Amino acid sequence: MTTTRHAEIAGAGLGGLALAIALAQKGWTVRVHERSDELRMFGAGIWLWENGLRALAALGVEEAATARARRITTMVARDQDGRALLRRNFGTEDRLVLPPRADLYDALIARVEELGVDVEVGSTAVGITPHGELEIEGGKTFKADLVVAADGVFSRLREALLLTKRIDYLEEGYTRLLIPCRPEDPATEVTEYWSGSRRLLYDPCTDEVNYICLCCPVDDEPGRRVPVDKESWLASFPTLGGIIERIDDTGRWDRAMRVTPRAWSRGVAAIVGDAAHGQPPNLGQGANLTFQNCLAMAEYLERDADIPTALTKWERNERPLTDHIQRWTDLYGRVASAWPDRFAHRRSQFLEVVTRIPWVDRQLNKAARHRPVGTR
């Protein structure tokens, strides 16, 4: 007789819920602990590439998550003179879709409820062991076949497992928010505007809202100000007043971080999402890698009954792609933001040449064109 296996997961963000779904679909019983008193997602959009969409389809949430989303046909980056530095077109097997993060989160919540996953809010995990114990604030300890930390970049549980190798504070940060949509807005083209060390990313999102991301160095005090200093950003992007004027007092500025763990697991304890591979959002792959890695973990656990062995195989096979994207998203940010204003034209010349090299295109889009383990 087969014994049902049980998992305890700390963190009900995108990674925690995705893993809960992946395991529940394989017959596991799952309990997710969320320290907040309610499940909520901040107001921004999210890039879902082909690899992420395939993973979400396997999790049974793609349709609900993208019901209102715009299907992107073109992505372009433009310099301070409006010149296109790089351009990418999307086909039927090479998709980019942009829903609000809340739509994706609601779809994941609905799926965990459908699968009977137990989600406990107001439940803060404070300890974890390689032997399958998850300690909750207040002294209660849960024992499971698998325990998982999905508690973000500053994961205290990752450190409790001694899995942290390093956390890098990068030299840029991002303010992300939604603005009202207007009829004249481009409906299917993502545009990243560059001006000196600042970037403004415009993303068509739904028929009602568009997603905007403002990127600047951490030393740019006016640039990182929230509420957004519209006059300062308008001075950098004088032709984008129609976008900037729609920015309201919401938004959140986050410093870019990069997490490098010693390993993704120890014993029957594992880390996922930002706790395992936090990275700047320059390539828009953080969540997509999370979904495919969570799906793959459940698949490896299905193939091998010994959990530590399965987790070791999972990391050995899946981590190289994640590490690759971490390096390239960091490099993209350095090229975009680290050039002094007086060298902006040289940056444009450099990018026009480099982005036409097929090898560079393959490196930038390696994850997007990957077929995740556990998908059809």
Automatic annotation (TrEMBL):
Residue span, FAD-binding domain: 9-299
Transcription among keywords: no
Pfam families tied to this protein: FAD_binding_3
Signal peptide stretch: none
Keyword match Ion transport: no
Keyword line: Monooxygenase, Oxidoreductase
InterPro entries from the UniProt entry: FAD-bd, FAD-dep_Monooxygenase_BioMet, FAD/NAD-bd_sf
GO MF term (any one): monooxygenase activity
Name the UniProt record assigns to this protein: 2-polyprenyl-6-methoxyphenol hydroxylase
Species of origin: Pseudonocardia thermophila
Organism ancestry: Bacteria, Bacillati, Actinomycetota, Actinomycetes, Pseudonocardiales
